[in-house]
Design a protein that fits this description.
68% helix, mainly alpha, two-stranded antiparallel sheet
Length: 101
């Protein structure tokens, strides 16, 4: 058993708790994007759904690392996958008009 798989599981649970506690606040890390005030609630709801998806992916990758005794390289892959999901969140937000680029 590879106990380093607990790192993605713990980080996933931490991200879920953080996103639930601060579900009414949002930080966009791209300075060229601003949230449209009329659609802010829909954007926050979409961001919460993506946070739950990110948590699920972290937990699945953590259990995969533990159960199959895979390399620690999967911890880095999980980080790449999460950043890809955040990028998709930004693209969906722009397409729906929640965020102005």
């Amino acid at each position: 058993m590879n106990w380093l798989g607990l790192i993605p599981i713990a980080f996933g649970i931490f991200c879920l708790v953080y996103s639930i506690i601060f579900k009414n606040k949002s930080k966009i890390y791209l300075s060229s994007m601003t949230i449209v005030k009329e659609k802010e609630e829909k954007y926050l709801k979409l961001r919460l759904y993506f946070s739950v998806l990110n948590t699920f992916i972290y937990i699945v990758i953590g259990f995969t690392i533990i159960a199959y005794n895979t390399d620690n390289f999967y911890i880095l892959i999980s980080t790449f996958v999460i950043h890809l999901i955040v990028f998709i969140l930004n693209m969906i937000s722009v397409n729906k008009g929640y965020v102005v680029a």
